Amino acid sequence: MKIAILGGSGYTARELLNILLRHPYAEVVSVTSRQDGTVRVDELHPSLAGRCDLICEPFDADRLIGKGVEFAFACLPHGASMQAIPALLTRGVRVIDLSADYRLRDPNVYATWYGESHSDLAYLAQAVYGLPELYGEEIAAAQLVANPGCYPQTAILGLAPLVAGGLVERDSIIIDSKSGVSGAGRTPKLGTHFPECNESVSAYGIGTHRHTPEIEQALGDVAGAPVSVIFTPHLVPMDRGIFSTVYAVPRRQIDELKLLELYRDYYARAPFVRVRKTGLPATKDTTGTNFLDLTARVVRGRIVVLAAEDNLIRGASGVAVQNFNRMIGVDERIGLL
Amino acid sequence: MKIAILGGSGYTARELLNILLRHPYAEVVSVTSRQDGTVRVDELHPSLAGRCDLICEPFDADRLIGKGVEFAFACLPHGASMQAIPALLTRGVRVIDLSADYRLRDPNVYATWYGESHSDLAYLAQAVYGLPELYGEEIAAAQLVANPGCYPQTAILGLAPLVAGGLVERDSIIIDSKSGVSGAGRTPKLGTHFPECNESVSAYGIGTHRHTPEIEQALGDVAGAPVSVIFTPHLVPMDRGIFSTVYAVPRRQIDELKLLELYRDYYARAPFVRVRKTGLPATKDTTGTNFLDLTARVVRGRIVVLAAEDNLIRGASGVAVQNFNRMIGVDERIGLL
Amino acid sequence: MKIAILGGSGYTARELLNILLRHPYAEVVSVTSRQDGTVRVDELHPSLAGRCDLICEPFDADRLIGKGVEFAFACLPHGASMQAIPALLTRGVRVIDLSADYRLRDPNVYATWYGESHSDLAYLAQAVYGLPELYGEEIAAAQLVANPGCYPQTAILGLAPLVAGGLVERDSIIIDSKSGVSGAGRTPKLGTHFPECNESVSAYGIGTHRHTPEIEQALGDVAGAPVSVIFTPHLVPMDRGIFSTVYAVPRRQIDELKLLELYRDYYARAPFVRVRKTGLPATKDTTGTNFLDLTARVVRGRIVVLAAEDNLIRGASGVAVQNFNRMIGVDERIGLL
Amino acid sequence: MKIAILGGSGYTARELLNILLRHPYAEVVSVTSRQDGTVRVDELHPSLAGRCDLICEPFDADRLIGKGVEFAFACLPHGASMQAIPALLTRGVRVIDLSADYRLRDPNVYATWYGESHSDLAYLAQAVYGLPELYGEEIAAAQLVANPGCYPQTAILGLAPLVAGGLVERDSIIIDSKSGVSGAGRTPKLGTHFPECNESVSAYGIGTHRHTPEIEQALGDVAGAPVSVIFTPHLVPMDRGIFSTVYAVPRRQIDELKLLELYRDYYARAPFVRVRKTGLPATKDTTGTNFLDLTARVVRGRIVVLAAEDNLIRGASGVAVQNFNRMIGVDERIGLL
Predict the structure, then answer these.
(1) What is the pLDDT of residue B40?
(2) In this structure, are A305 and A182 located in the same domain?
C-alpha cells in the first residue's frame, strides 16, 4: 500500500513514520512539508536517520497520484487539513486525518469551538470518527477517517462502559486530565520553553478546551442521549503521556468488583484496552505503545475512573495505524505490537 | 529563641534549617536524628555546608532543656512524633509538630485512618491546627501546634471562601491533586526510584489517602457543618509543588467576577495567599516560597478552583515558620519573604 | 528458537522481552527470577501486560532443558551470572550474558576491579566480547557471548577508527560520559531517589568505574597495543541515554573532513552506527533504538568525538539481540528496526 | 541605595529582583523593558506577585537619574548593553553589566568571538572583571563591573589554584561542562522546546563557545602567562545548574590530599567557594544558592576537578549581588545567605 504523509515536520508525523517504516503492508512514498528548499525527512527528524531517505516535497495531489499513492495520513494543523484533503478524496485516495477538522459532525459546533466556518461540508458528512473500539465497522468501510484527539480517547473509553448502560448521571461528569508537553505540538512557545514548564504543573483552557465537544459527541453516541462534561486539561513536565481521572455519579449503587467486570466485558475484544486487574495505571506503562490502560474504583459512592495512554501513539499515530489496519482489512494489531 | 529540630534527616528538616538559619529570631542549637555515630548536619544535607556546623544528636528532652531550648520543630514520622513531643511539652517547650499526629481532633478518626491508637490524648486535646489563615489567633496562644498537611492546605484554602458562605454543596466536592515526588519523603522506594516515576503520571491512595479527614475537619470548622470530599492524589515527575483542581457544585448561581472578588476579600489580610487576577496558577510560580496561589472559575455552572503551592515550603516548613512567627508574636512574614 | 531469560526483574530483562516478543525467530519460554511465590512477568513489568503471560520461575538448568531451551540471555547481577551460566553451557545452551562476568579476559583484572575472584575460568577463556562491529565473526561462532557494557560501547566505537590507524596518542585519552538514571539499575537507592537526582548533575566513580578496563581491553585489541584512558561517568536527570564526549591527542595533523570520512568508511557496513553528517548527536535521537550516533571534530588541534546511544537498548538489550541475530545466522537488524 | 534593573524580562532579572527585594541596602526603583504598553513586573514574573508592584518602563537615563538611581544592573543581551550603559556611567551611576560586553579586555577578541566591533572602547578600558574571589579589590573600587559568565566561573575557580602555582600544563586543559536549560535564556527556540531537550543530552558550540576567551583571559591573569583551553558545553534536561569536569596535566607529581589542601588554602577566605571534604559536588547542593562547590582528584596521573554551581545565582545574579556588596562596602554575604 503506497502511502503519503501530509505535514511531515511535527511529532505525529515522526511517530507515524516510525511505525509505518516497519509495517509490512505500508510503503511510505511521499512526505509533504511546507519547508523551503530541499529538506530530508531525517533532517527534520534525526531519529529516523538510516531508516528513511525521503526528501520532503510540497503538497500536490496529482503528483501523489502519479506516485501511486492510495492512502494518506494528514498530520496538518486544523484548518489546513480541510484545505488539502478534498483534493485527495476526489482522486480516490483514502485518508486518515489526524487534525480535528472532520471530528465534529455538526459544522456549527466546529465553528463555535474552532472559531471559523468549516470549508468542506460535503466530506464532513461522510467522515467516520476514528475510535476503533466504538466505530470499528464504519472505520473499515470509510474513505475518510477523522482520527480522534488524544484527551478524548482516555475520556471516551474511560466512560463508555458507564454511559452505555445508563449507569451514571449524564450531566455531572468531570474529566481531570494531565498531559505531557508533546501534546502541545512542536512549535516553540513560552509556555513550552523548558525552563518555564519543567518542574511545574498548571491547568489551561479551563472550560474552553476544544476536545470538550468531541468527548460529548462520542459519549452521546454511546449513551443515545446528550452527555455534558467538565473537562480540565493540565500540563505536566514529561514528554509524553496522558492520564485522565474521571468522576461520575452512579444512578444506582454499584459494587467495585462488578464495575471492573463490566469494564473487562466491555473491552473483552479490544486488544489495545487493558483493564488493570491489580495495581493502578501509570502513563509510563503505556509509553511507546498503543495500549490504553484503565481501571475504575468506587469512592464514597462515586465512580472514579483512571485512564492512561501515550498521547503520541495511542493518542494519535498509533491509533491512526490501528484505523489503517482496519481500513485495509488486516489484523488491527499489525505494526503496533 | 533557642530552637531544636527533631528528626533532622528528611526534606522538611532541611527546608526548615534553610529558613531558620537566616531567621533573625531563631537560633537552632540542636538537631536530633537516629543516625548512628557522629553525623554532621551538612553531611545529611550537603546544601547546608558552610551555613550549619551542628552535629546530630539523639533525642533527649533533658539535654535539650540543658541547652536552653525553648522551641522545637518535630520533623519525625507520624507515630514517632507523639512518642517524643510530650516530654518537651511537660518541660515547657513550645512545639510545632510537622507530622500528622496532632492534626485530627478525634482520636477515633486518627485510629481509623492511621491504623493505630493515639498514644497522647491529653496533649491531642490541647493541640491547635496550624493553618494560620484560619486558626491564626489560637496558633498565637498555643503551646502545641499541629502543622497542616501539604495537600490539605491547597484544598482547605481553596474551598474556605466557598464553604464559609454556604455557597456550595457540602457533599459533592472533588479534589484532584497533583504532587511532586518530594512529598513522598526521603526514604528510597521503588515508586520513587527515578526511572520508575520520571516521565510518568499516576494516581495513588484512591479513596484512602490520610489527608482526607484532615481536609474534612478543617472545612467542617469553616462551614459549621459536616463536609465530605473525594480526594485523589497523583504523583507527577517534578521535585516539588502541589497543584489542586477542586470541583464544587454551587447552591445558587454565581458570576465569575463576584467569585474572584469573594476570594480576594476573604484573603485580603493573608499575605501568603495570592488570588491571581490575570493568568492561572502554576506550581513553578510558588517554588521556594511560602505563597499559595489561587484562582476560581465558573464552568458550565460548576465552580473550578485552582490552587498551587510549594509542598515543602508552604506545604510544610514555610508554614511552620509562619506559625512560629505568630507564636512568638512577630510579623508572620519574617524569614519568609 | 526457544529462549530463557535469567533474572527477569530488572530493566534489561524488560527491554529484552519487549524486543523478543516481536522477534520472528524468538520464542521466550521461560523467565527466571528469585521473586518469592508466584509472580507474573507482567506484574513485574506492567508495560508488558497483554503481551506476555509467563509466570516467573526459579532458575533450574534441567527444567529449562526440559522446556526445550536452546538459548539464554542472562540479566543477572555480576557474580550471580558466573554461578548460573556454566550449568547451561555444559548442557549445550548458547548464552548471552548481559553482566560483566565474562567481559574481561584476564581474571586478575576482574579480581582487581570487581573485588572478587572469577569462579569460572574455563568458560571465561571461551567467552567472546559481544561488540558486533568489532568482534562480529567470533560472535557468530560463539557459545558464550559477553554482552558489552553501556558506557564502553560509546567509548570503544567512538575511538576505534582513531586507534585502529594509530592516529592518536594511546596514553592521553579522556572519556567524559553522561548517563541517564536507568543505568544504575532498578534497585532503589538514595542516589537514585527522584528528589535526590532530579534537577542535578553529578560525577561518580572518579577513576574507579569498572567499565575502565573493559574500554581499555577492547581498544587495546583494536590498536594492537596497550591503551590507557581516563573515564569519568556522570549522572544526568533523564531515564535513558548515554552521551560520551571523548578527547584525544592526534599524532599528526588531521583535517575535519578527512576525519569524518575516516569514520564513515570505518562504519560503512555497520547498520547501527550512524556517523552524523549534519548536526550533532543527541541522546534523544537514539532513544528506543539500537543506533549509536557519532561525530568527530577537530578543536584547537585536539580531536573531540561525540557519541550517543540508548543505554538500555544499544547499551544492553538491543545489542544483545543484535548478537543473537549474528549467533543464529540471520540479518543482524531483525527485530531491531 | 536606589537601584535600576535594565532589561527586566529574562531570568537573570527575575533572580536579581528575588534577591534584591530582600536585600537591606537595596531599593529597586525602576525596571526597564522593551515590552510594549504597560506591563507590571509581576506579569512578566508571576513568582514575584505580592512582592513587587513596579511597572516596566522604557530605558531613559535622565528619567532614572530623576528617580535618584545610583546603581544599575544591566540584564540586557550583549550588544544592547554597550549601547545603554555609557549614558548611565557618564551620569555617575555605578553599573554591573550581566552581559558579555565588557568582559573581554581586548576589543579584537570581542570582535572575533562576538562577530561585531565593540562600540564603547572608552568604558571597556575601565571595566573590571567581576569575579570577586580573584578581582575583589578592583571590584570594590570600580564604577563598571563586567559580571562573569556562568560557565567561566566554574572553570576559572576550578583551575585557579592549579594555574596560580604553575602546577599544571597551560596548553592541555580540557573543560567539559554540563548546563541546565535556563542558561539558554528565556526566548523560546526549538532546541529549548521541552519535548526536544527533555530526556536528552547533547553538546553544542564545539570549539566555538564564546565563554572560551573569557576563561582564558582570567586564567591568563592568574597564571601570568597565556592559557589555552578546550571547552565543550552540553545541554542537560534540568532547569538550572552547571557542572564542570576539568582535566589538567600536572607538571609534577601531586598527592590528592595535598591537592585538596591547596584548594582549601586558596579559598580559605572565600565564603561562597566550598571545597568538599567528603562526597562529590552535585549541582543540586548549590541550587538557589551563591555557593560554588569544588573538589579535585588525581586519576592516573591527571588532575580531575569537579565544580558545581547554580547558573542563575552564582553564575549570574547572585555573584552580581556579591559584587554589589563589595562595591558599596558591605559584607559580601549580605542578601545571599
Answers:
(1) 95
(2) yes
Dihedral sign for Cα atoms in the order B90, B92, B93, B98: positive
- Answer for the pair D78, D114: CB distance below 8 angstroms, yes or no: yes
Residue B318 banded pLDDT, cuts 50, 70, 90? very high
Residues A71-119: pLDDT tens digits? 999 999 999 999 999 999 999 999 999 999 999 999 999 999 999 999 9
**Strand, coil or helix: C302:** strand
Alpha carbon distances (Å) from C91 to C1, C63, C70, C88: 16, 11, 9, 5
Residue C91 in grid coordinates: 548442557
List the end-to-end C-alpha distance of chain C, in Å, as a whole number.
20
D300: left (phi over 0), alpha (psi -120 to 50) or beta: left
pLDDT of residue D36: 66
D95-141 pLDDT, tens digit per residue, is: 999 999 999 999 999 999 999 999 999 999 999 999 999 999 999 99
State the average pLDDT over residues D186-203: 98
Q: Which helix (H) or strand (E) holds D10?
A: none
Q: What is the percentage of chain B residues whose pLDDT exceeds 90?
A: 98
Residue linked to cell 526521603? B186
Cβ contacts of D239 on chain A, cutoff 8 Å: 194-195, 198-199
Check residue C36 and give its pLDDT.
67
| Interface residue ranges in chain C relative to chain D, Cβ cutoff 8 Å | 174, 176, 178, 180, 196-204, 206-207, 228, 230, 232, 234, 236-241, 243, 245, 247, 280-284, 287, 297-300, 302, 304, 306, 308
A122 and A169 share one domain: no
Q: Which CATH number goes with the domain that contains D226? A: 3.30.360.10
| Residue C73, domain CATH | 3.40.50.720
**In a domain? residue D110:** yes
B275 with B233, same domain?
yes
Of C156, C158, C133, C177, the residue nearest C304 (C-alpha): C158
Mean model confidence pLDDT for chain B: 97
pTM: 0.98
In a 10 Å sphere around its CB, with 0-12 CB exposed, 13-18 middle and 19+ buried, how is residue A250 labelled? middle
Residue A36 binned pLDDT confidence (cut-offs 50, 70, 90): low
Same domain, B80 and B220: no
Domain presence at residue D51:
yes
The whole-angstrom separation of Cα A188 and Cα C228 is 44
Give the domain range for residue B307. Answer: 150-311
Long-range contacts of D145-148 (CB under 8 A, 24+ apart): D145/D95, D145/D96, D145/D97, D145/D323, D145/D327, D146/D97, D146/D100, D146/D101, D146/D102, D146/D103, D147/D96, D147/D97, D147/D98, D147/D316, D147/D319, D147/D320, D147/D323, D148/D103, D148/D214, D148/D218, D148/D319
Subunits with 3+ Cβ pairs within 8 Å of D are A, B, C
Counting the structural domains of chain A, the total is: 2
Where is A160: in which H helix or E strand?
A: helix A150-164
Query: Cβ–Cβ of C193/B186 closer than 8 Å?
Result: yes
CB C114 within 8 A of CB C107: no
Interface predicted TM-score (ipTM): 0.97
Nearest to B237 by CA among B285, B193, B294, B175: B193
